[in-house]
Amino acid sequence: MGRVPLSHIARCQRCAESFASSRAAEVDDWTDGHRCDPELAALLVLVTERRAA
Ligand SMILES: [Zn+2]
Fold it and tell me: Whole domain around residue 22: which residue ranges?
């Protein structure tokens, strides 16, 4: 009890990182300020290509 539900969730399509908050404005801030981890994004591209092949 007393937990605030994280009703707003953003997920980056490139690096699959996600952020959840009870406030939409915080999620918007995360989306605006998010920068993909280049190594993680590159790794996910490799995984996606391997699955598609
Ligand atoms: Zn990202």
Answer: 8-52
